[in-house]
Amino acid sequence: MAFVIGEGGPKDRNAIQLATRAGTWIKNERRLERAPEALAAAIAMCAPFGGTLRSITGTYNCVGMVFASRRTWVQPDELAPIFGDDGYREIADSEAMEGDIVLYRDGSGDPCHVGVVFQRTTDVSSATTELIVLSKWGANGEYLHGRNQLPVLLLGKSSVVMSESRRRF
User: What's the pTM?
Assistant: First the structure.
């Protein structure tokens, strides 16, 4: 893979202006749409994992969906400055609200995927909370799915719910 100086940075013509609340630049890349045949194959490939397909495109990923309004592709290694600069903190599932972020980590503990809490349900009889998440599965579609209902390549070893500190009263 070729290394491009300034790739995803402020001078990259394939990047959009994107920064944290504190002004830290978020590297990003606008990608071209995939061929219709590739998008159809992606739907078929993801079908065994369940979830409900919401839309199909390859122009943005999960981080771009959550933090860039579906406009660009942002690598998961950009999540640390976003969470830090924008005041996110880990919360218990029982505190999760629609709009909070679910952060998935890989086996090394590094962020690998994010989604948005779409719905929270509580089963009083078992005292459990189930989160329905909206996330973008790589270069494939957006899916509504259970918190741990992801394709194997996206499913991290653990997940936590993150919320902006300023939102809590």
Answer: 0.89
